[in-house]
Amino acid sequence: MKNDKNKDAFSKVGRIMEIFWLSLAILSLLVVIYIFFAQGITRANIQYLVFPGMAGAMFAFRYVMRRRMERNSRK
Length: 75
Prior knowledge:
Elements: H1 2-39, H2 50-74
Helix pairs in contact: 1-2
């Protein structure tokens, strides 16, 4: 019984972190697009694409791991 509560809590935290990383990726991408329109695309500011890329990678990692854990817990 207690183990089920821990799994539910872990699942909720994992889902919240997924939403956090996805929103951070989208927000940072919007900021980078704004910078590109305001300053133009240059070698100096193209490095800002690292931030949405890393946030998107973290979202993808969390999503895949959560799906894998859900699939394994059903077995």
